[in-house]
Amino acid sequence: MEILNEIRISMPSLSSNESAARAAVSSFIVQTDPTVEELSDIRTAVSEAVTNAIVHGYRGTSGIIELVIRLLPGREIYIRVKDSGCGITDIKKAMEPLFTTAPEEERSGLGFSVMESFMDRLSVRSKVGQGTTVTMRKKLAAHGS
Ligand SMILES: Nc1ncnc2c1ncn2[C@@H]1O[C@H](COP(=O)(O)OP(=O)(O)O)[C@@H](O)[C@H]1O
Ligand SMILES: [Mg+2]
Predict the structure, then answer these.
(1) Distance from C-alpha of 134 to C-alpha of 77, rounded to nearest angstrom
(2) Under a CB-based contact definition with an 8 Å cutoff, are residues 71 and 117 in contact?
(3) Which of 64, 89, 125, 126 counts the most CB atoms within 10 A of its CB?
(4) CATH number of the domain that 29 lies in?
(5) How do residues 105-145 score in pLDDT, each as one tens digit?
(6) Annotated catalytic residue 52
(7) Structural domain count of the chain
(8) Which of these is catalytic: 22, 59, 75, 107?
């Protein structure tokens, strides 16, 4: 993978870092001069992934979340959100719309659906007891002159 630019952020699983992650992604992506909608889509997707790491991955515990944001050739944005939390038993099921293991917290079960619809590609890798890595890509529209 050819990487044109990259930032890596390592943060503790505090809910205040959801907005910090959104801000980081915005300030990195601004170099590509994205549309308002592209920026909003990517921010939302990152927010969902980071929130999942905090509320599900490190449920009842705490740990480190690694966020990697890359600019790839062809105006493609690559995002990776990694936690070393509890992991997911059944990834396919977890990704189904409306599936949630935390209904009492009024989770909608739509986090993965949002990531899937706002980004071009979504991949989830997870091992129970080891953690979860969510990778997303989105190609930005060609630049007008
Ligand atoms: N990082 C993660 N670590 C462990 N489990 C996760 C993680 N992300 C998602 N999950 C599981 O996948 C389910 C669906 O996630 P999501 O679609 O975001 O819905 P919600 O967060 O509203 O429950 C969660 O309820 C949880 O069981
Ligand atoms: Mg969620």
Answers:
(1) 14
(2) no
(3) 126
(4) 3.30.565.10
(5) 777 999 999 999 999 999 999 999 999 999 999 999 997 65
(6) yes
(7) 1
(8) 107
- Give the pLDDT confidence of 27-77 residue by residue, as tens digits: 999 999 999 999 999 999 999 999 999 999 999 999 999 999 999 999 999
Is ligand 1 within 6 A of the CB of residue 81?
no
Question: Cα separation of 66 and 49, whole Å?
Answer: 11
Q: Which domain holds residue 110?
A: 5-139
Residue 61, number of CB atoms within 10 A of its CB:
9
In a domain, 39, yes or no: yes
Task: Tell me the CA–centroid distance for residue 144 and ligand 2, in Å.
Answer: 35
17 within a domain of the structure (yes/no): yes
Give yes or no for residue 132 CB within 6 A of ligand 1.
yes
| 145 falls within a domain | no
